[in-house]
């Protein structure tokens, strides 16, 4: 796999950008801005790492955990029930990132094993 070609990781970066931008059209509640900022930046950074270093399963697994944390952040930050609009603008990109990452893990593992198997002989 070539660098910067994994559509799944581009989708994760886009999900991070959306999470950051969503703060401009939603009303903050409690710590929602902090969670959305942290989650958006984390998705952008780990997505960019996976784009730059394709075939790195460990980074894909980290990305999966980050996506799970973004999905969980409305509950962790106590803004899931008070302002559901804010929560939905976190849940949706989090789930998109989670599904995209789930689709990227197997190809990354396959590429990693093919590359390391070929160089061990």
From TrEMBL:
- Transmembrane found in the keyword field: yes
Q: Which UniProt keywords apply?
A: Membrane, Transmembrane, Transmembrane helix
| Keyword hit for Chaperone | no
Q: Do you know which InterPro entries this protein is assigned to?
A: SPW (IPR005530)
Pfam families from the entry? SPW
Q: Show where the SPW repeat-containing integral membrane domain sits.
A: 7-100
**Annotated transmembrane regions:** 7-28, 34-54, 61-80, 86-105
Stated name of the protein: SPW repeat-containing integral membrane domain-containing protein
What is the originating organism of this protein?
Paeniglutamicibacter kerguelensis
């Amino acid at each position: 796999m070539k660098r910067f070609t994994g559509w799944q990781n581009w989708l994760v970066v886009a999900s991070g950008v959306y999470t950051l931008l969503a703060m401009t059209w939603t009303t903050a509640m409690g710590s929602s801005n902090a969670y959305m900022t942290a989650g958006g930046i984390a998705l952008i950074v780990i997505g960019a790492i996976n784009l730059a270093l394709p075939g790195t399963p460990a980074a894909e697994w980290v990305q999966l955990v980050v996506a799970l944390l973004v999905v969980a952040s409305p509950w962790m930050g106590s803004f899931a029930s008070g302002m559901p609009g804010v929560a939905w603008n976190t849940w949706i990109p989090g789930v998109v990132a989670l599904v995209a990452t789930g689709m990227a893990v197997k190809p990354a593992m396959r590429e990693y094993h093919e590359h390391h198997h070929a160089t061990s002989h």
